[in-house]
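User: My advisor asked me to double-check a structure prediction for DUF2536 family protein before group meeting. I don't want to rely on an old file, so could you generate it fresh from this sequence?
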Amino acid sequence: MEIRHMQQVKIFETNVFSKLETDINHWIDYEHRNKRCIEIKSISHAYVGSENDFYKYTAIVAYDLKHE
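Assistant: Sure, here is a fresh prediction for DUF2536 family protein from the sequence you gave:
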């Protein structure tokens, strides 16, 4: 079997900083249940203002998605 690597980026946004980790973990679990292997390369965090004067915590996850 040949394994292909596809480098990608996924963005998570929430109003509660602690929810970012939960959301990322749920996403990784979801990918594993669907037989896809996630290899996290980096996670960057930011506090981003929106056009409505609301602020959101943002995590940018760079990862490799491996399919068998």
